[in-house]
Amino acid sequence: MSVRRYHSQLRQGAAERRAETHPLTWRLREDGTMVGLEEYVEKKGYAAVREVLNHRTADDVIKTMKEANVRGRGGAGFSAGVKWSLTMKGPDIPRGYLVCNADEMEPGTFKDRLLLEQQPHLLIEGMILAGYANDSCFGYIFLRGEYLEAARAVQRALDEARAAGWLGADIAGSGFDFDIALHSGAGRYICGEETALINSLEGRRANPRDKPPFPGQSGAWGKPTVVNNVETLCNAPGVMHHGAQWYQELSGELSDDGGTKLYGVSGKVNMPGLWELPIGTPASELLERAGGMRDGRTLKTWLPGGGSTGFLLPEHLDSPLDFDSIGKLGSRLGTGLLTVVNEDQSVLALVRNLEQFFARESCGWCTPCRDGLPWTVKLLQALERGEGEPRDIEMLDKLADDLGPGKTFCAHAPGAAMPLQSALKYFRDEFERGVTNPAGVTHDEPMPVGEA
Amino acid sequence: MATIHVDGQRYDVEGSDNLLDACLSQGLDVPYFCWHPAMGSVGACRQCAVKQFKDEDDTQGKLVMSCMTPAADGTRISIDDEQAREFRASVIEWLMINHPHDCPVCEEGGHCHLQDMTVMTGHDRRRYRFRKRTHRNQYLGPFIAHEMNRCITCYRCVRFYRDYAGGTDLGAFGANSNIYFGRHQDGVLESPFSGNLSEVCPTGVFTDQTHSEQYTRKWDLQFAPSICHQCAVGCNISPGERYGDIRRIENRYHGEVNRFFLCDRGRFGYGYVNRDDRPRQPEWRSDRDDGWVTLEVDAALDHGADRLRSARRVIGIGSPRASLESNHQLRELVGEEAFSTGIGVAEQRCLDEMHSLNQRCGLPTPTLREVEHHDALLILGEDLIESAARVGLAVRQAAQARRETLAAERNIPTWNDAAVRTLGQDRYHPVFIAYPTATQLDDVTAARFTLAPDDIARLGFAVAHEIDDQAPAVADLDSATREAARDIATRLMAAERPLVISGGSLGCEAILQAAGNVARALARRARRGGLLLVRREANSTGLTMIGGKPLEWALDELASRRADAVVILENDLYQRLPAAAIDAALTTAETVVVLDHQRTATWAQAHLGLPAASFAEADGTLVSLEGRAQRFFQVFDPSYLRPATRIHESWRWLHVLRGDIRRHPVADITLDAVTRDCARAHPALDAIVDAAPDANYRVHGLKLAREPHRYSGRTAMRAHLNVSEPRVPQDPDSPFTFSMEGYNGIGRPREEVAFAWAPGWNSPQAWNKFTDEVGGHLRAGDPGVRLIAPSPAADAFATAIPESFRGRDGEWQLVILSRLFGGDETSSRAAPIVARAAPATLAVADDDATRLGVDDGDRLEITGQAGSLTLAVRREATLPSGVVGLPAGLAPVLVAGEWVRLAVSRGGGGDAGGHS
């Protein structure tokens, strides 16, 4: 049996993708192979770097990013321009680091992978611009350890860029020195949290850090550090090239947010994949582009942007997929990659699977996350096996609440609580069906150790 | 200052604190785990959640972690808020998921912070019904037992061990709910501060193994405020006794000295008190060839008095490990002219030099708390972790305090521990160490110089000259040393509070004089500096203040028959000078009276041996290296459970012996009287009377309880001896009772606290209830009085600068290297210390080892003036060529500073400690 390597699949043909409307993907090749330096430069690559480093100030870059309102594509949606404006700079402040968060590990998410594997030069260009804006002395790409092909592509691109003078001393004759190193992670979801990422980068345990101080004040090795998602950074060259207004207008009437978004669909649809669309495109259009539900089944529920976002119902499909609109529905846009669930699939099993993931990936620093999540898993397992007890669902309600925002050290547990809480809200009957045992009766076969 | 509102009440608090700190300092109870007053906040456990309100009108509020929230002016919080209470109960419930609930068999039970917090939050019903995660435990050495299943993952252990104490071999492993705190593999914990894990750990993961082996609950132990006798630092301790044995030693909070932490020698070195072979009755023989007979007290005193009365001249040999009172009583017995300190002349010269410097160089001696606030340090000739470990720990904090300065510049509060460390990284206040070998503080030094003693002195003299050119210049200084001296001088002068640390460990007066010159130079340049000088033994400083002739003098008086009798106080002379000299003196003497609590080689030479009380059975006063007179109190009456025991304080023995010699019927003496006599006799010790409250001190008309109020078994514990319970022993010497009856509360401030307990607070965390603010001072003032104030007038610079060290052909200069485990006479008689001590080896410089053709483990015979020793070689890359290092604590065959010959030993040979 031959194993075909999986590739992130962009489901838009070259004809559809244009520089003015698809800033992230217009250069991608039909065959899905990497866009090398030569081709990238041919397609106006590094033009923004040459222009900005030689003719614009760092403050100007930040101002433009702020005006464009490029909201963090890692899922939090925080304005990259605002983040950059908060980075400490000055005569007494050491130059710090620009870190690309390429630790894409959100369940159901595979968008950064596309950019990393097929167009790493766009990321490098974005990082140089960000490094310039933040007066960073060095850049790191913190890459998910399992992304081997991306590692090869990024390393090749770094070598090419360095050889061509796009990295190193005096980039494009501007006097600005900047280089980038690739750092492959060791496989922890929590490294996607920016401060845990920094700790891991420093060689420490991947525990998040308390904020404030924010990384912009005291980040990697105590120096000002900016951490941005791959897709966020990939937006910078387009914004610099075409301007903030162009970026804002990309989404037209669809959303208050500007720009495009790499959306995706996975699950039981006919054609899972990725699309670069104006931000605010409704999920219904995505589902349509994905060829609709597979095998003629009906949509039961969907996650708008990864495992740490809340479940939404078919009735929410027409809502714009942007940060604020999805937030109003009680969920989060997250990464913007839809996980589709059909009527045959058990939400209880799905939630149990997700909670198992989040429990396993807890760094173990704070109590609610470390000890609350495994309990959640065991309760879900009991319900799934039909061994639930009458108070289990109230216990899950309480756990979901106690693991919520503001009570834990970082956003990991609140991310785990969101699908649980929304599943308990929308699909409570599935949970209730698992309650069969009377309270306080010992089970013959207690839950085995280590399964959580 | 700031005003905060807690549940509607106004409190004025220190505004730079976090809310948890502020609330605890106000006496409010907020449960917590990961926060520690000495280590700051990290926000991990989420136990200290409170509700914070934006303003008066905000009724909603939101949960915040009080440890991570500033106590800013106008802050409004509620501890009692229902949501906050529920969340805190949830946290305990989560922590209990995997906790084994093995309190009945857990060593921590009864002084467990987790128990206290569980009760405080009201969690009392288990709802988790699934299996618990379990761990395997590790062997961590003779001090610390490991039971990982009890762990609640607060991370305090690694934060203390690594971040605070600089250890590297304890870490957090694993992830999620499977975090493991341990070593990478079984093995002895390397840090000399590992014992603090037993108090830092809020539950029973790391417990005192010496206690486990003879376990008693805290509430069944009898305590007294005591002072550690294992070095000169004067850490305050709470020894706990049951059935006539010391069962454990806990830290006793002192706001200026040890605060929360002890070293492992102090905590685990008490075993000599419990030794079976301790003399417990007077032992007598009229002639050395006779066998010993044990005598009753009166008979022993009569025999002793008869012999001493008929002696031509009696010499008294005192001891730096005995109290001021005992030394004073001996001096009274034999007269000032016949009193020897019992200290070798070389060490005594160093002690006198140190005392003189402390009085006259113009810089004060900082307390340990103050050491932590010095911002540039020069350490000459001391390996602090080995010679005064607790000082070393304070020096580490001083170096690390640079991070707090840097953090303040970025408005990061000092208590935000992780953020402070992140920003500061490895930037430290400058610390310079000159010592013959590497030290355990090297990782925080700006520069380290491994030099022979004379070169250490020269470096010091050169630094002094760079600071103030009135100080003599060093002749023939090489340019590297000159540069180093210039750099050190610049850094010391740039500091707000430079500190010079030196001491007598290397037995080199020139080093002390050099340190003195640096201190004088700093004092003349009007720096707010300090000078801290390390002495070796618990009362070295105090005995120097009493004064007396060196031990060699006493031996000579006896050997030359100018005196025919000697009374030796708590001093094994064989640990101080070569055996031949001791033998000559003691075998010549007609009468040898020895008072000791250990069966030493000296005891074996006695005609009359009087069983003295150890620190655990005695009261007395010690003077620590900072010149602080501190009282230690008797923990238990040794005859209560062992009625045949005739152990008494040496000062009591000597008092009645003196009366007997004069045929005066004497009444018993009390501690207060003997302390007063001692103070009167020695003007410099005048203030020792005020070192602690006298025996008449009462709180609410009550004496103070030595036993917790839940103390059990009093009526049964003597039942095997006699079914009728005797009256509890009376204590005429102190305000403490041998009973649970008496005051033990927190309402009335008192400086002498036998054990830390407050309602709801059974663990050592109860100390927060006794302090003016968390981590501050005892509300009644920290115990003890400072005796030495430096005179403002700077004295003249020392001018005797040694020549630079030159190796010799076929000879090596011997240095004695301080040793924490095995380097102290009494703790070396405790089994756990023996187990922990590294085998004695001879440190040989790499070059020299190569030249001699020896490698690690090969044996070398070391021959000096008085004899030779054979030891295994340890190649020491940092040691300067031409110098060899011998660990402290071996039989004193060889003398520090002497030139020795080395020969490869052909098998067999004498062992370490043996002498030929």
UniProtKB/TrEMBL annotation, chain A:
UniProt cross-references to PROSITE patterns, sorted A to Z: COMPLEX1_51K_1, COMPLEX1_51K_2
InterPro entries per record: NADH-UbQ_OxRdtase_51kDa_CS, NADH-UbQ_OxRdtase_suF, Nuo51_FMN-bd, Nuo51_FMN-bd_sf, Nuop51_4Fe4S-bd, Nuop51_4Fe4S-bd_sf, Soluble_ligand-bd
EC number assigned by the record: 7.1.1.-
Cofactors named for this entry: FMN; [4Fe-4S] cluster
The entry's keywords: 4Fe-4S, Flavoprotein, FMN, Iron, Iron-sulfur, Metal-binding, NAD, Quinone, Translocase
GO molecular function ontology, one term from the record: NAD binding
Record domain NADH-ubiquinone oxidoreductase 51kDa subunit iron-sulphur binding: where: 348-393
Function: NDH-1 shuttles electrons from NADH, via FMN and iron-sulfur (Fe-S) centers, to quinones in the respiratory chain.
Name of the protein in its database record: NADH-quinone oxidoreductase subunit F
Organism: Halomonas ventosae
From TrEMBL, chain B:
Gene3D superfamilies for this protein: 3.10.20.740, 3.30.200.210, 3.40.50.740
Cited InterPro entries: 2Fe-2S_ferredoxin-like_sf, 2Fe-2S_ferredoxin-type, Asp_de-COase-like_dom_sf, Mopterin_OxRdtase, Mopterin_OxRdtase_4Fe-4S_dom, NADH_UbQ_OxRdtase_75kDa_su_CS, NADH_UbQ_OxRdtase_ferredoxin, NADH_UbQ_OxRdtase_Gsu
Function summary: NDH-1 shuttles electrons from NADH, via FMN and iron-sulfur (Fe-S) centers, to quinones in the respiratory chain. Couples the redox reaction to proton translocation (for every two electrons transferred, four hydrogen ions are translocated across the cytoplasmic membrane), and thus conserves the redox energy in a proton gradient.
One Gene Ontology cellular component annotation held by this UniProt entry: membrane
Listed NCBIfam families: NuoG
Annotated signal peptide: none
Family designation: Belongs to the complex I 75 kDa subunit family.
Alphabetized SMART domains for the sequence: Molybdop_Fe4S4, NADH-G_4Fe-4S_3
Any one Gene Ontology molecular-function term assigned to this protein's record: 4 iron, 4 sulfur cluster binding
Catalyzed chemical reaction(s): a quinone + NADH + 5 H(+)(in) = a quinol + NAD(+) + 4 H(+)(out)
Keywords: 2Fe-2S, 4Fe-4S, Iron, Iron-sulfur, Metal-binding, NAD, Quinone, Translocase, Ubiquinone
One of the GO biological process terms: ATP synthesis coupled electron transport
E.C. numbers: 7.1.1.-
Domain 4Fe-4S His(Cys)3-ligated-type residue range list: 83-122
Required co-factors: [2Fe-2S] cluster; [4Fe-4S] cluster
Quaternary state and interactors: Composed of 13 different subunits. Subunits NuoCD, E, F, and G constitute the peripheral sector of the complex.
Name assigned to this protein: NADH-quinone oxidoreductase
Domain 4Fe-4S Mo/W bis-MGD-type positions: 221-277
Pfam family, one: Molybdopterin
Record note on cofactor: Binds 1 [2Fe-2S] cluster per subunit.
All residue ranges annotated as the 2Fe-2S ferredoxin-type domain in the record: 1-83
